[in-house]
Amino acid sequence: MSAPTARYDRIGGGYSVARRTDPRIGQPIHDTLAGAVSVANVGAGTGSYEPDDIPTIAIEPSARMIRQRRDTRNAVQANAEAIPLRDDAVDCTMAILTVHHWSSLAQGLAECARIARRKVIIFTWDPEAPGFWLTRDYFPEILALDRDIFPSVQAIRRCLGPVQVRPVPIPADCRDGFLGAYWRRPRAYLDREVRAGISSFSLIDDLPARLEQLESDLADGTWRRVQGEMLPRDNLDLGYRLVTAVVN
């Protein structure tokens, strides 16, 4: 069992509740899938962002994540680095906030390209982005870790060749529960159930002290004084990117 798989078997129990498709993020993903008749979702988790109108095979290494899917019949327990599908098995492969967990980016993307007839579609975070208030001011370790584990666009390009990169702004009321989703709802990060859907928090040693500081800054108005300029915004570019490569 790989380290990421073992970690998600341990911490992934609440992902089907905390991590849900946000249609405003899903729309550009689904636009990119236009015309596809079959899809493989690699690192599929509990199934967020899978298209309802295209037959989809879910490739997911964690049995605990697979059990939380609405329908497990289309799920295959396997790693991105060894996908048990034939060459050109599907029109498109998609990988949503997962490539940073793979043990080998090059091998995983080679597998995604091998099984795809048309496109490889990746939703990820750009490590050249500056982060946002949570990671800059309260959890700099998360920012440092993410910059280390998330592949750059250049690294993806080296694996797949020319890619199209589209910024995906995060709505202020984002329905999905990934790290940047609550940028305008800071109190959400104090919620244990919210944090259970964000793997980065499982890696912080002094988590209670950091949360106490955030709670104190919210209570005395410090957070609003420092971050107030962004509050009127409906969405914010936090560095999330949709990367698309045409293959074959």
Could you write a compact summary of the structure shown?
This protein is of the alpha/beta class and 248 residues long. The chain has helices spanning 3-11, 15-18, 23-32, 63-67, 105-115, 133-138, 140-149, 153-160, 192-196, 207-219, 222-227; strands at residues 39-42, 56-59, 75-76, 90-96, 116-125, 164-167, 170-171, 235-236, 240-246. The longest helix is centred in the C-terminal third of the chain and has 13 residues, at 207-219.
Structure in words:
The protein has 248 residues and is an alpha/beta fold. Helices cover 35% and strands 17% of the residues. It is built from eleven helices and nine strands. The protein has helices at 3-11, 15-18, 23-32, 63-67, 105-115, 133-138, 140-149, 153-160, 192-196, 207-219, 222-227; strands spanning 39-42, 56-59, 75-76, 90-96, 116-125, 164-167, 170-171, 235-236, 240-246. The strands form two sheets. It has a seven-stranded mixed beta sheet with strand order 3-2-1-4-5-9-6, sandwiched between helices. A two-stranded antiparallel sheet has the order 7-8. β4 (90-96), α5 and β5 (116-125) form a beta-alpha-beta unit. The two termini are 32 Å apart.
